[in-house]
Hints:
Helix content is 38%, strand content 18%. It has twelve helices and eight strands. The protein has an eight-stranded mixed sheet, with helices on both faces. The radius of gyration is 17 Å and the shape is globular.
Amino acid sequence: MPAVSVSGIPVTYDVAGAGPQLVLVHGTGGDARTNFGRLVGRFADRRTVITPNYSGSGGTPLPAGELTVDLLADQVAATFDGPADLVGFSLGAVVAAAVAAKHPGRVRSLVLIAGWANGADDPRLRLGLSLWAKSLGDRNFAGLGVLLAFSPAFVRELADDGLALLLASEPPPGTARQIALDLEVDIRDRLPLITAPTLVVGNTQDHLIPVEHARELHRLIPGSRYAELDSGHIVVHERPAELTELIREFILPEIPGGRARAR
């Protein structure tokens, strides 16, 4: 796995495919492979797909100092030379938005999935993230994660083996510090600086980052488009085909596809 040094930290990433660059930025408690394993092959036919791991995930160490949005944005930005299409999921959406605000000339288009601009004013969001963090290290962590991160219908339809696999999953070592950063996120002042064409995707059954936060991102990013999917938070696993269709239609308009429910 290649790596690039940012402030003395080796940032790992994977590369697949050929063509213009597409950067997929993972979320909290996952890494590039666990979040985007089902999506990379769907884009590698027309894009060089770059999947970075920021600090605490995928072998990229945590910093000695504070974990910040700026640090993670710098780590992601170092893995591509642009111009690139950026797709961010969850905390990755926050990071991708920060990259687009700081480096407008390097971002051709931006897709933000299940993201948020500010969680300080939402007790529901803070409660869910705080309980998830407190369960780290005990047997309830994976179970609580399943309840918060997936829609009820998705969990009901899992076979016993599929549910057991989710419950047996281990979080990356940096999950606690990533959740702590989630609770501090406030990028509202950066969003008006985004000039790249932007698609915001919300999930109507998101119990971790309620869909109202995606709607707020859409309102705060000038000229952005908006679409919603009937999914829980981890839409990259629940609705990979539908999500791929939305992204491909937005960044690859020459490829026939369905119509995004954009507004």
